[in-house]
Amino acid sequence: MYKKRGLLIVLSGPSGVGKGTVRKELFTQPDTNYEYSISMTTRSPREGEVDGVDYFFKSRDEFERLLEEGKLLEYAEYVGNYYGTPLDYVNETLEAGRDVFLEIEVVGAAQVRAKVPDGLFIFLAPPSLSELEERLIGRGTEGADVIASRIAKAREELEMMNLYDYVVENDEVSNACDRINAIVTAEHCRRERVEKRYLTMLEGE
Ligand SMILES: Nc1ncnc2c1ncn2[C@@H]1O[C@H](COP(=O)(O)OP(=O)(O)OP(=O)(O)O)[C@@H](O)[C@H]1O
Ligand SMILES: Nc1nc2c(ncn2[C@@H]2O[C@H](COP(=O)(O)O)[C@@H](O)[C@H]2O)c(=O)[nH]1
């Protein structure tokens, strides 16, 4: 019997572009219907970050064990720390017909694309590299060395923009949210049309 699966939405882009800010804003909107997948990381918590809310904070040994056990949908080592998406949570939520929202960097997003080709891949782009640097400096959570590494990485990450279904500029947070909501709504409509067509064909057999 045909069972409708949820949509996997992947929001990616360079560090500091505003992925977290946009995602948090999306999740405060009353009609948002996605489930956020909380990532695992070996990075230390920043001030105010809570285990099980912002991330599942793990030691390197714990993370490597999860990796060996095949418990991650994707993972990447990013500027000295591991980050990864729990596989079971994503699968179970999609199977239950609910949409899952991932906020991850580009190497992991490419792994998800290979495993879940029918996902929706959105690249969040900064208005400019200098604005990106200003946002990282303004956030005040990393020192100058880490910011320099993240900016160097951002140059490589921006080259991967063309591998995404959509590029959304994060000029203003509310604009970026509106654009993402419009993209997700259009994708749902497209899927419904395809699904209807498929079911009509089955009925005719
Ligand atoms: N549209 C925007 N205009 C101005 N500042 C913004 C905008 N979006 C986010 N910011 C600011 O930029 C900084 C970085 O944002 P945020 O932490 O959400 O980025 P991120 O992409 O999630 O970073 P990381 O990948 O490192 O977690 C924050 O200080 C945030 O308030
Ligand atoms: N590949 C993955 N990347 C992830 C995941 N969770 C977060 N991230 C990305 O890592 C960088 C750094 O994050 P920060 O919290 O230290 O600033 C950033 O681009 C995140 O989007 C994940 O599960 N997999």
UniProtKB/TrEMBL annotation:
Molecular functions (GO terms): GMP kinase activity
Q: Where does ATP bind?
A: 13-20
Q: Which domain of life is it from?
A: Bacteria
Which PROSITE patterns does this entry report, sorted A to Z? GUANYLATE_KINASE_1, GUANYLATE_KINASE_2
Entries under Pfam families matching the protein: Guanylate_kin (PF00625)
Kindly report the protein's main subcellular placement as a broad class: cytoplasm
Residue ranges occupied by any Guanylate kinase-like domain in the UniProt entry: 6-185
Q: What class of enzyme is it?
A: transferase
InterPro entries the UniProt entry points to: GK/Ca_channel_bsu, Guanylate_kin-like_dom, Guanylate_kinase, Guanylate_kinase_CS, P-loop_NTPase
Enzyme Commission numbers on file: 2.7.4.8
Catalytic activity entry: GMP + ATP = GDP + ADP
**Cellular location of this protein?**
Cytoplasm
- UniProt entry keywords in alphabetical sequence: ATP-binding, Cytoplasm, Kinase, Nucleotide-binding, Transferase
Q: Which HAMAP family match?
A: Guanylate_kinase (MF_00328)
| Family listed | Belongs to the guanylate kinase family.
Protein task: Essential for recycling GMP and indirectly, cGMP.
**Protein's recorded name:** Guanylate kinase
